[in-house]
């Protein structure tokens, strides 16, 4: 098994990781944030998801903005970001 194969295998179930999209949601206690079409690496076997650092930073900013607005429900999409590698 090469190092590249290990990188492409899911550390949870050993399935294959591939580039795709995910749904990200956060329950803030007083409200909910839902972000659709989030670029992610997704396991084709168990569905585990990983986000790049830049995508994670964007998600944190979206959640912080919703928290500051005290939004009960915030639904948005990240269609404008490139796919995670």
3D architecture notes:
It is a single chain. This protein has 85 residues and is an alpha+beta fold. The chain has a single domain, classed as Roll (Ubiquitin-like (UB roll)), CATH 3.10.20.860. It is built from 2 helices and 4 strands; from the N terminus they run αβββαβ. It has helices spanning 3-8, 53-69, and strands at residues 17-27, 32-43, 49-50, 73-77. Strands 1, 2, 3 and 4 form a 4-stranded mixed β-sheet that branches. A hairpin with a 5-residue loop joins strand 2 (32-43) and strand 3. The two termini are 21 Å apart.
Task: Give the tags.
single chain, 85 residues, alpha+beta, Ubiquitin-like (UB roll), 2 helices, elongated, disordered C terminus
What structural class do the secondary elements suggest? Answer: alpha+beta
Give the low-pLDDT segments: 81-85
CATH class call: Alpha Beta
CATH fold-level assignment: Ubiquitin-like (UB roll)
Total number of distinct structural domains? 1
